[in-house]
Write a sequence for this structure.
């Protein structure tokens, strides 16, 4: 009986996978196999409790479980048909998502769906009529043990396969669709409940008084704007996230071939920051987005886009909306990746152009999806349709690990080292550079170039320390912890029409972009709670703290428990780094407190009063 119940729900789940959820992309045989088995791990556990029940009680339990799970599955099906996404708890609480759902809910149901409920009469019959076969003997200890053992094996097998298919899936929680694909809708719901309850508990314990200490810190920390305040007033802002792009490729070569020929030229007519660090954690691209829009640090664990999408923020798009800007994000990936569809609403983006807004085919895709050149070409159409001034964030994708590229897109001869990753990286960075060139040309053709500030930033590192040997060979020096920290520099390019090029070497990080952008647009930031400082400000501190607590200043670098003198790259006395290290730790702590306690909700209230 138990196995029958498990089998029936497994069958229903698969019916859903192949009909309602069929737009989920199955990338390979392995994923297809995981999909086949993933409902079992949960269903065996939940129905397994029936092992401890007898006769009628057991039947009732099986019937109720079947009913509840079917309703849950069906709710997800209807939801998916409408939103192309799975239900999550924060989403259920975001009532505006449901505003116009009532009327459409019926239209998303159809008679064939009755199939999902077809087994219920059978369970009802068994429960009421108690046919002899359903009242079999109670289970023996041995039965239970065997069942538990098999169940445990299935769970580990499923999780193991999921982990090999997508490492760090559960710790980083990046892609809802991928999670459902690999662990099934039921386990995903459990996981979601776990994340949500953790968040709710911390939030409930927080109160507004915590904010005043942080406010004081932030006030003292403010840096006066520079002469460039208002230099780009009323202009469009085009912000480009350069996937996995580190500074070491800029003005650098592979066997004499420039890696970023276009950017090297573009830098000469822009402000180029060559001591600018990424500050991301596990949330990678989304952490960089979070830093830039909020001037708050992402979290030490997990992706804040997923864990705290229901918080109150005072993000860049929200501020710009109030100043009459149209705000949009453009990224040709699945909209639920990094929970963007939900987080973007929270941050105030008026429009998210995602995968469905692009023409993505086999031919124009590679690796993670739409190639950067067609992405930029198609994005131009979207930009043209926007009311001006706009704030548009474009997120590139081709230069993403494992740096796959079609032969025909290869523009330089590959580097030859023992690290295939590094060798390919140069090729995809070169392609990305070409894509940027195409984009800028198109912006000029469409007349958007002269009335837009163009800001490009590297989102995070692309080459991990696993490739230090090949990296050392390329750079011609050993990659010590000091060098590794210096490799966390990512390019930041700010192009303002009519301004001459200039290299600015102040130490800064992604946290500093929000006040920098606002000041360029002539918007005051006095009341803003954020940890960054205008990168152009003459009185700024030269400082960047990484999410792991490493700290860089003008002269010193603290990383991996050691203080380094930046000029020599040699170890130096700890006391030189101590004050900055403490300051870094304090800032991260304050920022975490804001996020875990959802403290900006109190600030927002103050303002409205
Ligand atoms: C996915 C893209 C890449 O949409 O932003 O994410 P990453 O793995 O770099 O965070
Ligand atoms: Mn990225």
């Amino acid at each position: 009986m138990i196995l029958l119940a498990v089998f029936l729900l497994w069958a229903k789940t698969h019916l859903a996978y192949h009909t309602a959820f069929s737009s989920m992309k199955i990338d390979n045989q392995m994923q297809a196999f995981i999909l086949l088995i993933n409902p079992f791990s949960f269903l065996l556990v939940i129905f397994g409790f029936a092992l401890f029940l007898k006769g009628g009680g057991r039947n009732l339990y099986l019937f109720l479980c079947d009913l509840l799970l079917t309703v849950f599955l069906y709710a997800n099906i209807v939801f998916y048909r409408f939103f192309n996404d799975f239900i999550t708890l924060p989403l259920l609480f975001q009532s505006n998502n449901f505003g116009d759902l009532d009327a459409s809910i019926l239209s998303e149901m159809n008679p064939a769906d009755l199939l999902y409920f077809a087994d219920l009469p059978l369970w009802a019959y068994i429960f009421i009529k108690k046919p002899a076969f359903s009242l079999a003997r109670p289970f023996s200890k041995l039965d239970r043990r065997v069942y538990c053992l098999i169940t445990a094996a299935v769970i580990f097998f499923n999780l193991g396969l999921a982990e090999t298919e997508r490492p760090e899936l559960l710790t980083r929680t990046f892609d809802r669709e991928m999670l459902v694909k690999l662990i099934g809708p039921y386990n995903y719901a459990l996981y979601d409940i776990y994340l949500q309850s953790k968040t709710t508990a911390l939030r409930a314990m927080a109160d507004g008084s915590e904010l005043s200490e942080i406010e004081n810190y932030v006030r003292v920390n403010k840096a006066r704007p520079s002469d460039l305040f208002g230099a780009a007033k009323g202009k469009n802002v085009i912000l480009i996230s350069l996937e996995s792009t580190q500074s070491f490729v800029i003005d650098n070569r592979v066997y004499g071939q420039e890696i970023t020929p276009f950017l090297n030229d573009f830098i000469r007519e822009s402000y180029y920051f060559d001591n600018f660090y990424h500050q991301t954690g596990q949330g990678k691209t989304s952490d960089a987005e979070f830093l830039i829009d909020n001037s708050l640090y992402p979290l030490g664990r997990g992706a804040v886009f997923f864990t705290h999408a229901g918080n109150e923020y005072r993000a860049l798009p929200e501020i710009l909306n109030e100043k009459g800007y149209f705000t949009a994000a453009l990224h040709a990936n699945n909209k639920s990746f990094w929970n963007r569809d939900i987080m973007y609403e929270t941050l105030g983006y008026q429009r998210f152009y995602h995968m469905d807004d692009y023409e993505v085919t086999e031919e124009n895709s590679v690796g993670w999806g739409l190639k950067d050149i067609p992405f930029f070409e198609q994005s131009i159409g979207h930009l043209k349709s926007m009311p001006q001034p706009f704030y548009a964030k474009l997120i590139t994708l081709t230069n993403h690990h494992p740096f796959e590229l079609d032969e025909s897109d290869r523009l330089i001869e590959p580097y030859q080292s023992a690290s295939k990753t590094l060798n390919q990286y140069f090729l995809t960075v070169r392609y990305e550079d070409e894509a940027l060139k195409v984009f800028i040309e198109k912006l000029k053709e469409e007349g958007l170039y002269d009335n837009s500030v163009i800001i490009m930033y590297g989102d995070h590192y692309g080459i991990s320390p696993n490739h230090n040997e090949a990296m050392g060979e390329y750079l011609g020096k050993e990659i010590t912890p000091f060098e590794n920290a210096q490799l966390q520099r990512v390019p930041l390019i700010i192009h303002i029409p009519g301004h001459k090029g200039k290299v600015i070497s102040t130490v800064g990080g992604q946290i500093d972009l929000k006040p920098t952008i606002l000041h360029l647009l002539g918007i005051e930031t006095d009341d803003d709670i954020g940890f960054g400082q205008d990168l152009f400000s003459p009185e700024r501190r030269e400082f960047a703290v990484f999410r792991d607590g490493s700290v860089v200043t003008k002269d010193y670098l603290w990383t991996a428990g050691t203080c380094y003198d930046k000029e020599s790259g040699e170890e130096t006395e700890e006391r030189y780094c101590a004050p900055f290290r403490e300051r870094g730790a304090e800032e991260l702590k304050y920022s975490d407190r804001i996020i875990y306690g959802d403290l900006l909700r109190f600030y927002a209230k103050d303002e409205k009063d």
In short: The longest helix spans residues 176-205. The chain has a mean pLDDT of 91. The chain has two domains: 2-202, 228-532. The first strand starts at residue 236 and ends at 242.
